[in-house]
Amino acid sequence: MSELGVSPDDLAFSASVRAAQARKGSRHVYEEAVWPTEISPDLRAFVAAQRSIFLASASADGRPYIQHRGGPPGFLKVLDSRTIAFADFRGNRQFITTGNVAENDRVELLLIDYTHARRVKIWGRARIVEDDVGLITSLMPEGYRARADQVVIVTVEAWDVNCPQHIPQRFEADDVRRSLIERDTKITELQTEIARLERLIGARDICGDDL
Question: What is the pLDDT of residues 139-155, one digit of tens each?
Fold first, then answer.
């Protein structure tokens, strides 16, 4: 890992992966690839806009698990150029991610913007902080009705922007609702203007050109 970034070979491309790339003809694309290791301003803004993320972990013996986490925009927070954290809202209380991280701290975050077909993968090391009321409070979204007993903190090792192909276009309900309100407001404004013009035309017809 350097100031510029890290080779994918160091994080994601094992010998078996590299062999598969060579066999399928894509190895040359990634031989000189470098993934950034620090959170850029663009990534910071992307993180802040997320309403839904996926967190992948695995147990020490390799049992994989993917956990969904969601909340209002801003629930996923960038603490500094190498750290992302979120209050872990109560769910079904299986604590699979919590148990996995306790014995294997390697994780990956998948962030998807379905509206604009954008996708980012983040590799990192996670730790769980339990019963720190001050930290939990600082990470809770304002006004969001949820309970959290712990925090997930991810130290970023690298990140990469995925190919946008095959991401289905979907729209958040809040965004659709806001667009409909804006549309209805514009329609009302236009109807008011049309009525005003009709009254003006009617007045001209009655009064002639002296209006």
Answer: 999 999 899 999 999 99
